[in-house]
């Protein structure tokens, strides 16, 4: 029997969605349809949302799950109805925190995903600008400003990881491809030499790489399995010889790569 | 008196960090230092983390706050120590959900930020590739594959928003700048004409735009306040005349812009 989950928030609903997702994915054998209702910031909008939840309960013939992050306790209380299972993340934790810190919380909305701190926000935009300008070996002369430089063969997944590091952590992440010409030299590309302490490698299984390259340029030398095997082997040899730490992206998501790079490269986030 | 918050997880700690951030920012007058401990996935690592928390309690002379998202109940229990205030997200919500859904949860780690669903993962990488290729008017002929096309004057904030839409929602988001030449024609740029139903505008206060442009190209005509006032006024006139919905980015974060665009353009996320 399919169920419905409502994800409700006074602001973007991003936190509520992530928390709901983490819980829902623990029940794989239940089909749970999700309806996201962001910017529920007035009693009128809240009452409309409650009416929608009640209607869904009738349609589904069972209680919708409601995941919410209401800072405003009055709005939240409007959702305390017997027709739904209400799980509010603030309600559960803000009380124990207020007691521990011996003061009331601010009850201020828009702190999490708004422009709460302009300095942090600037760090983030600067990092995104830096990262897009330094994609795929671009503007190699400005690499001294990079926090980290991802290296690896073409299509190993450097770009999405760099973009994630920039957007989510405010990290200036350049990336620089290893090419067959570099392997012929048995040495790091020249522009990277002054920055070897900032290098972090990404490798990938040749079979996966061949698939990805095939979907970009089918019938090319570039996407042949032997080409991929050869390039990956040489890249790994080079990284080992040069003492560059590296990760295999084949079974790691962008988030897993990014958080591991943050940890292993000792990087500190510059924005939330 | 400064406090310490530990953010602990068996995986990336991204969910735990967001949860902690959303709670901590409600206590603005308390200085709370954050220590993130991801990939705590063995009893040995958990015991090390607990020792670090105990040591911090002594240093701080008060209890650290511990925010966690442990799927593994055994690991989580190791953190139930009197020297810390433990707030585990799963512990609080998985019980009520199991009861409501009348089945046990999977207790499977890596569901949230791992490659849980390869199809979704591919959507995401495809969206990132599309978005980087279609930044700033690039590859205008492939715009038929775009889910949304952001328009606005140069430096109004289109690129970071497009990247966020691609990375977080798997949305193929192109962007296309309005230039003084377009305004001279009093018409939409030709490549956009077949796709006007996909257009979403971004505008910005001229004073902010001048600041941003100045930091990129000081002493240019491009960054003069009058230039910015003129371009913004003409862009807004054009968007109104062409019935293009638009948002003002001056006080909106990337997340607020992105979630509002998703909502107003009726877009559905293609990945988690």
TrEMBL record, chains A, B:
Pfam families in UniProt: Kinase-PPPase
Name under which the protein is recorded: Putative phosphoenolpyruvate synthase regulatory protein
Keyword field contains Transferase: yes
EC number in record: 2.7.11.33, 2.7.4.28
UniProt-annotated binding residues for ADP: 152-159
Gene that specifies this protein: ppsR_2
NCBIfam families tied to this protein: PRK05339.1
Record has Nucleotidyltransferase as a keyword: no
């Amino acid at each position: 029997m399919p169920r419905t989950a409502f994800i409700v928030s006074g602001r973007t609903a991003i936190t509520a969605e992530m928390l709901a997702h983490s819980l829902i994915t623990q029940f794989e054998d239940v089909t749970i349809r999700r309806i996201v209702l962001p910017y529920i910031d007035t009693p009128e909008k809240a009452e409309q949302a409650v009416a929608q939840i009640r209607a869904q309960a009738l349609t589904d013939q069972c209680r919708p799950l409601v995941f919410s992050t209401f800072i405003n306790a009055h709005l939240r209380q409007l959702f305390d109805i017997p027709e739904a299972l209400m799980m509010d993340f603030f309600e559960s934790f803000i009380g124990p925190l207020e007691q521990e810190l011996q003061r009331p919380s601010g009850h201020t909305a828009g702190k999490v995903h708004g422009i709460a701190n302009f300095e942090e926000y600037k760090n983030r935009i600067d990092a995104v600008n830096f990262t897009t300008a330094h994609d795929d070996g671009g503007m190699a002369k400005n690499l001294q400003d990079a926090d980290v430089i991802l290296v690896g063969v073409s299509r190993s997944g450097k770009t999405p990881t760099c973009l994630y590091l920039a957007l989510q952590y405010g990290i200036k992440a350049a990336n620089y491809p290893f090419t067959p010409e570099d392997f012929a030299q048995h040495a790091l590309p020249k522009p990277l030499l002054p920055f070897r302490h900032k290098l972090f490698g990404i490798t990938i299984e040749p079979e996966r790489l061949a698939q990805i390259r095939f979907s970009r340029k089918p019938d090319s030398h570039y996407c042949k399995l032997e080409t991929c095997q050869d390039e990956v082997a040489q890249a790994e040899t080079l990284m080992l010889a040069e003492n560059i730490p590296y990760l295999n992206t084949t079974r790691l998501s962008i988030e897993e790569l990014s958080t591991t790079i943050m940890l292993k490269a000792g990087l500190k986030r510059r924005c939330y």
